[in-house]
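haha ok so turns out i had the wrong file open the whole time. this is the CORRECT one, sorry everyone. sequence first:
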Amino acid sequence: MRTYRAALIGIGGFGEHHVKIIEELVREGSFKLTAFTEIRPEAFPATVSLLTRIGAVPYTDYEHMLAEQKDTDFVIIATPISTHKTIATRVMSMGYHVIVEKPPAVTIQDIDEMIQVQKQTGKKCQVNFQNTSLRSFRQMLSLLEQGAIGEVTQITGVGRWRRTKAYYARTPWAGKLTYNGQYVLDGTFTNPLAHLLNNCLQAAGAISPELMIPQSVQAELYHVNDIEGDDVSCIRAEMPGQLKVNFYAMLCHTDNARPFIQVQGSEGSMRWSYDNSLIVRTAKGEEKFQYEEENRVRNMYLNLMQAIEDEHVPLYSSIEACRSYVLVSNGVYESARGVVAIDSQYVQEIEAEGSTARLLPALSEQMHDIADRGVLYSEVPFPWARKTRRVDMRGYNHFAVTFAGVKS
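then structure:
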């Protein structure tokens, strides 16, 4: 493979992780960073110094950068969520391939515009849902495509993490539904556990592409922290046929448990986990596949470079493949119509990681059972939970929800 030349937009936040991957690839000689853009370079002096040492030219305006650095092959976009659509569409229109951070867009109309520009320009657009690159997950997709467990009826994602008060203070848009007049929709399934929901939908698509498109969505959103967005969620997406995709997430667990996806079929089941493992159970017995830890973001870079070099190589996470994720996400807010504050009598607060964290013990204890049953929290029922409406998603193409605070 030839040496690829890239430019980076955004060096703070998750951009710092991209910098580490870039530094590693540069050392190996297969990659060159031509330039980078950061609107607040004074906030990241060490990173600016590192990038300039490896030969990257600094800018504060990405259009100016790309107008001058015309020999760049692709552009990495590691900016706030609300900026993804504007920057990615402009970069592709200027003639460059793209890796954009997840989620690719906030609304269905935004991702549809991104898909349209991608098709018009013919440029690759990889979304950094890096868990799609794991060998265990690629194997699960292959087995589902082959029908290894018969007709699949249910795909369930479960994520139980803990986030502290400091997590929500790290950036002005953290935990916000809107920021500076734009949708952010920061919550369990749109940020920290977005990979989990996206992988559930990619698994559905491996069975058959039309199974990625939800017919209806019903969801519940809650928070225990003093934020606008959710830190507790549950989603039921009805796909074509008999398939249901269920999702359960909380950021107020006792610790950071390993997220997993359970797939139930007529002839067996599969369980994929974030530790890069896959367990397949059929009438023939149980088979476990355990792979070593992988550098997931690095995988995404290499996959994009291979796809640029060979048009027959598919992207792990193309912009078009991510439409289902945004569609379901928008359906969640259409269904919930707000985020319910869970009363403090059900919440425990502890010191953690040099900060404080709020926990929801009853949900932590029952989450696995709830996921096995496939019920929403209001169907358990929990005293703090509220029923929501089921929303028809067929033909849905515009998100315009107005949010209001909801008290339990």
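The CA atoms of residues 281 and 319 lie 32 Å apart.
again sry for the mixup
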